[in-house]
Amino acid sequence: MVFTRPESVTTWGSLGGPLLAREIHLAALPAGLPEPGDFAVVTVELAPPGPGQVLIRNLCMAVEPYPPSPAHPGAPPFPVGQPLDGPAVGEVVESMDDELRPGDLVLHGYGWRDQVVLDARSVLRIDPVPGVDPSAYLGALGMSTLAAYVGLLDIAGLRPGEVVFVSGAAGEIGVMAGQIARLKGAARVIGTAGSQARADQLTRRFGFDAAFADAEGEVAERLAAAAPDGIDVCFDNVGGEHLEAAIAALRPHGRVALCGVAPQNATETAPGPRNLALAIGKRLTLRGFSVYDHLWRMPDMLAEVGAWVREGRIVFQETVVHGLEFAPAAYVGLLRGENTGKMIVRI
Amino acid sequence: MVFTRPESVTTWGSLGGPLLAREIHLAALPAGLPEPGDFAVVTVELAPPGPGQVLIRNLCMAVEPYPPSPAHPGAPPFPVGQPLDGPAVGEVVESMDDELRPGDLVLHGYGWRDQVVLDARSVLRIDPVPGVDPSAYLGALGMSTLAAYVGLLDIAGLRPGEVVFVSGAAGEIGVMAGQIARLKGAARVIGTAGSQARADQLTRRFGFDAAFADAEGEVAERLAAAAPDGIDVCFDNVGGEHLEAAIAALRPHGRVALCGVAPQNATETAPGPRNLALAIGKRLTLRGFSVYDHLWRMPDMLAEVGAWVREGRIVFQETVVHGLEFAPAAYVGLLRGENTGKMIVRI
After folding, report:
1. Cα–Cα distance between A110 and A122 in angstroms, integer?
2. Do residues B282 and B253 touch, judged by C-beta distance below 8 A?
3. Does residue A109 lie within any of the structural domains?
4. How do residues A48-105 score in pLDDT, each as one tens digit?
5. Residue A123: which of A137, A144, A139 has the closest Cα?
6. Is residue A338 included in any domain, yes or no?
7. Are residues A111 and A172 both part of a single domain?
8. Which of B274, B276, B280 is facing A269, going by the closest CB pair?
9. Could you tell me if B263 and B328 lie in one domain?
10. Which of the pair, A288 or B33, is modelled with greater confidence?
11. What pLDDT digit, counting tens, does each position of A214-262 carry?
12. How would residue B270 be classed by pLDDT, with cut points 50, 70 and 90?
C-alpha cells in the first residue's frame, strides 16, 4: 500500500474562527470485512474546552483489530454516524485544567480524529522519553508494554535468574514480555507461538532462548523439553493447555500472571487445567490482572523501557500510514494481516 | 470406650539410672483396618541429650488418621518395629541447647512415646497462653488452626466486611477458618460440608451464616443462593467443582487460598475449573500454600486465637484418652470414626 498525504483542511486551536475537527465515521455497517468505502471523513465543529477540559491535537493513532471484525463476532461494532475510537497520542493545545498545560503530550482513547476536546481526567499525561517518537507510546511504550511490564514485575514478581515461560509470545504483549524478562535478568525465556515461523521469529529476532509452535496435546511435552529444570514464572496469554503445561513445569513458589486467554479457552465449557491441585504442594500463585488497574506504573515503565528503546535494546515493529484519511485503509489492511507489527496512523 | 491409666513405669529424666522411654511400635502390618493388637508398648533406653539436643517429656499427643488406613492407600505405613510418630506437646526436661530451657513447652512431631531426645531445631517452642490446656496446641491452637489463620490472613488477605466461602468447612481446618473469619470481621461466612447434618452443625455450633451439603453439579447454584452478592475470599479445601463455583461467585479482586483438595480432585485426570479465564477480568488471585512455610506466624496465631480460646469465643471439640498405652485403641477408634473432634492422648 502506498499512502500520500493530501493538503490539510484543519484549523488548529480555536482562535480565529470555529473550532473544526475532522473525524472518521462508520458510514454504514459492513456485512463482512469492511472496505474503506464503509467509512467517511466528516468535519464537525467542536465546542471549546470548558472547565477541567483540554483541546488536544492528535499526532498519531493506533489501529486496533476492533470490530467490525470477524475476529470479535461477539463485540458490538462501532456505532454508525459517530467517530470511531482507539488509542491515540496528542498534544494539548488549549487547557482549562490545572494539571495539564499546552504542549503536554497525552495518551487517550479518542483516535480517528485530528482534534478533540476531552475531560483532563480521561487522558494520561506522558513524560516524554527524549529521542523517542510519539508513536512509540502506542507501541513499544504503550499499553501492551505496560501490561507486560506490570504482569512480569508486579503480578509475577520476576526476579533475576529465573526461568520465564511466555505463552502466546508472538502477540503484542507476549513479545514485549519476553524482551522485558530478558532485560530484567531472566536466566532463560521460553515462548510459544501459533506457528513454527512465528516461533522462529521469537528466537531469531526477539531474543527468546527457546520457542515452539503450539501443537494440541504436546504443549506440556515441548515445554518440558525447553525447560528441563522447570520454570519460575509463566506470563499467560492463552490459558487452557498452555496454562496446564505451565502448572506442571512450575517450580515451588512459582507465579503465573494471567493476562489473556485464547478465544477457544474463554468459553465456559473449555476444560480447565486438570492439574491445578499441584498449586498447593508447589505453593503456586496464579493472578489475573488488567493493565487499567496499574496505570500509575506508566512513568516507571516509560523510564525503564524507554531507555531500552532509545538504546535500541528492544526490538519492535510498526507499519506507519500517513494521513488521517487513510486510517480506514490502514484498518482494512490490519484485518487482512497486511501490517508488520503495530499499525500506526500519523495524523 | 473406657480407658483407665495403669501405674506408670517411666523414669523421668536421666538422673538416677538409665534413661528409659516407653514407645508404641507397630508390631505387625495389618492387612486391613488395624487392631490394637497390631501394636506393642516397648521400653527402650535413650542416649542422653548431646550438644544442641533436648530431652522432652511428652504431655499429650494427637492421633491423626495416618496410614495404615484405607483412607490413605498410597502413603507408606509406619515402619514395623519402630515408634510411630505424630504431633505431640512436651515439656523440656533437660537441655543441651542455648535457646531451650527446662520447663519450656514445645510442639514437635514425635508423639507415640512418653519421652524423647531431639535436636532443638526440630521442635517449636510454644509461648504458653495462660489458662489454656497443653492439648489445645494440638487442636484449637495447633497446625490446622495455623493453616486456617495463615490462609485467611496472609494468603487471602481477608479484610473486615468481606464475604468468605470455606469449602470442606466441616474439616479440622475448615471449621477454624470459618470461625477465625467471623472473629476477624467477615460480613458473612458460608461453608460446605459432606452431609446436611454436618452443614447444619456449621451454622448451629460454629457460627457460620450459611452452610450447605455438597451435591454434585449443584455447588455453584447453592453458593450463588447463599451469597447472592458474591464472595470476596474462598478458603478452598476441596478443589474441583467447589473451586469452580468459587471462581464464578468471586467479586473483582477476590482471593482464593488453595489449602487442600479432595482425593477425587487430586488426580491428574480430574477436570479443572472450566471458568478460570474469569480470573483475568475479575483480577482474581489463587494461591497455594503449605503451613510449614509459615511457622513464624505461630506466635501471632497463639496470641490472637489463644485469647479467643481462653474467652470461649472459639468452639472446638476433642476426645481425650488417658494413657500412652491406649493410643493404639484411640487410633483404631479414630479410623472407625468414634471420635468427636480432635483425638487426643494424654501421656
Report:
1. 10
2. yes
3. yes
4. 999 999 999 999 999 987 654 444 444 445 778 889 889 999 999 999 999 999 999 9
5. A137
6. yes
7. no
8. B274
9. no
10. A288
11. 888 899 999 999 999 999 999 999 999 999 999 999 999 999 999 999 8
12. confident
Same domain, B179 and B273: yes
Asked if residue B251 and residue B190 are part of one domain, the reply reads yes
Which residues of B are less than 8 Å from A283 in CB distance? 287-290, 293
Q: What average pLDDT does this structure show over B103-115?
A: 95
For residue B275, tell me if it sits in a domain.
Answer: yes
Q: Is the pLDDT of residue B191 over 60?
A: yes
pLDDT over 90 (residue B58): yes
Cross-chain Cβ contact B288/A280 below 8 Å: yes
Q: How far is CA B255 from CA A287, A292, B174, B240, B286, in A?
A: 9, 19, 16, 16, 6
In a domain, B15, yes or no: no
Contact B285 A285 (CB under 8 A): yes
Query: Buried b / exposed e across A95-124, counting CB within 10 Å, b at 16+?
Result: bebeebeeebbbbbebbbbbbbbbebeebb
Contacts of B243 in chain A (CB under 8 A): 276
Residues of A in contact with B268 (CB under 8 A): 274-275
- Distance in angstroms (rounded) separating the CA atoms of residues B70 and B188: 36
What is the Cα–Cα distance from A174 to A180, expressed in whole angstroms? 10
Distance of CA A174 to the CA centre of its chain: 10
B180 & B254 share domain: yes
- Whichever domain contains B28, its CATH number is 3.90.180.10
B92 shares a domain with B31: yes
Do residues A196 and A276 both lie within one domain? yes
Residue A34, domain extent: 20-125+317-346
Q: How far is A277 from chain B (nearest CA, A)?
A: 6
Residues A201 and A242 both lie in one domain: yes
Radius of gyration from C-alpha coordinates of chain B: 22
Q: Residue A267: is its pLDDT beyond 90? A: no
The count of structural domains within chain A is 2
Burial of A25 (0-12, 13-18, 19+ CB in 10 A): buried
